[in-house]
Every structure is written in structure tokens, then in C-alpha cells.
Amino acid sequence: MKKLFYALAIISIVACGDENVTIKPKEIEADLGANHQEEERIVSQRTLKELKNASKVVYTLPSPVEMADILHKTSAVYDVAILNDPNSISNYVTDFKRALNLGVYFADLSFTSMFDYPQDAMKFMGAAQAMSDELNIQGVYTEEVMMKLEDNLSNKDSLIDIVASAYMDTDMYLQDNERPIIAKSILAGAWLEGLYIAVNLKTEPPKESEVWSKIGEQKPAIRNLKNMLADCNEPQFDSLVNKLDELVVLFDSIKLEEISKDKSTESKRVVSPLFKVEVTEELFEKIQAKAIEVRNGIIQ
Questions:
Q1: In this structure, is residue 37 part of a structural domain?
Q2: Each residue of 29-39: b (16+ CB within 10 Å) or e?
Q3: Greatest CA separation found in the chain?
Q4: Mapped to the 3 state alphabet, what secondary structure does 186-249 carry?
Q5: Per-residue pLDDT reduced to its tens digit, 24-79
Q6: First to last CA, the chain
Q7: 250 neighbors 271 (Cβ within 8 angstroms)
Q8: What is the domain count for the chain?
Q9: Residue 259 belongs to what H/E stretch?
Q10: Does residue 44 lie within any of the structural domains?
């Protein structure tokens, strides 16, 4: 799933060329070669920068499936009532709103699948399918995929795999068709819905719950997510970026101390550091209230 977020960063890259270059006939071959090398260098630098920015978000940002898995392993109580109504798709009439809420539905779909509520999962998959159709995202929710979903309703692991594949295939379609704003909107919607669910699901005892720690670990991610959207210079993101600024201020009050890192050389995979997280009940309630406000602004 984490590959998705790297891909989301890549599709935001737009290479710009200079169409007003004047060259002499004898120098055309050399100049074309030099221009090509320079263009490759610029694109490579831009790609590297985008990947570094994306990796900052990815580093501490669990995917919807990962966050659902974290909550499933705790004593969190599943409550479908807190999720977005899958019948609300007709309320979203702009591509921006549709993309944000496609991300929301992906997150909701992940939770219903992880908590083994297959009938709810079918409803959210249907909502995601309808939203994808409105966004003209083709080839993801095929008849074969939907039949496979129905055939695996009693197999939680297979259901989760289908959800993850649909999420990745959606991103790949957007990557291939150069639609970065839609892709980043889906990412933002999915992450914010995951945060919203995390702060609203009941756990026992709450102050010792892994959920609180995982929320606290999002301190670096929330700032980098906000920066990633702000860097798009897209007016549609302005209101959301301002709201994320308010969340950043709250998260800045969380005490986050890195206590260890897996330095194993036997595996090349990136391992997230372990943190000691201190979140007071008062601060948690403020984060909860703000997360609800931001998320409700997306689904309304």
C-alpha cells in the first residue's frame, strides 16, 4: 500500500520545456543532445524532490488498511454510524469533492473489511465504484472485480486484498492519465477519514490505547501532508490547507520522542522508528474536535 503514496507524488510532476530555442543547423544535433540531457537532469531533480517530500508523508502516514489493522488489533469498537453514508454520493457534484470523498470511502471500506462486516463493505465498494465512474476512472471496478468481491465476502483477508488492489489501481490510472490534483485529493480524503475514525472509535482503556500513540505519531505526517497540498498552488486546496494548519498547531503540542530504530541490515525495507508519545486528554479532545470539523467539511 505504501507504494501508492510514492506514486501519488510522482504524478504531480509536470516537466516544462522551452519552445523558443533558436539553434544553428550545424549545431542542431549537439544542442538537441544537450537540451535532452538538461531536461533529464531537471526532471530527475524534480522527481527526487517530489519523492523526498512524499516519503516524509509516507514515513509516518499509515494507509487506510494499515490504520484499520491497528484499530482492529486494539479493543476498538466498530461503529458503522460514524462512517460516511454510502448513499451520499449524489451530494458531491464537483470533481474535487468527488475525489476527496472517494478517499473517504476507501478508508471506510478498509475499516468495514478489516472489522469483518462484509455487507457494509459491499455498500462502500458500491459508493467507491459510483464515485470513480463520476471521476471517469476506468478499468478499476470491472464486472470481474465486483464478482470477485461478492465471491469473497466471507473471506476477510481476500476482501482486504481486493480493497488494496482497487486503491492501487485507481492511483495507477490517475498516474497514467496525469491527474495529480485528483490523486492528491483522494490521498487527503483517505488520510483525514482515517484520523477521524481513529479519534472517534471507542477503546478501553483510552489513555493506554495504541490508537492514542498512533494518532500522536502523525505529528510529522500532518505537517508534510499540509505542505504537499500547499505546494500544489491549487485554489481548491486553500480552505483545506487552512484547516490542516489548525490541526498542525494542535499536533505541535504533542510530545514525540524517538526511542529506537530497527537497524537490521538483513532487510532493505524501510522500518519506521518507535516513538514515546505523550498526548494529554485535553489535547486529545481538541484534536478530536478539529478532526471532526475538518472531516465533516469534506463530506458535507
A1: no
A2: eeeeeeeeeee
A3: 77
A4: HHHHHHHHHHHHHHHCCCCCHHHCHHHHHHHCCHHHHHHHHHHHHCCCCHHHHHHHHHHHHHHH
A5: 444 445 555 555 555 555 544 544 444 444 444 443 455 667 767 767 776 677 78
A6: 28
A7: no
A8: 1
A9: strand 255-260
A10: no
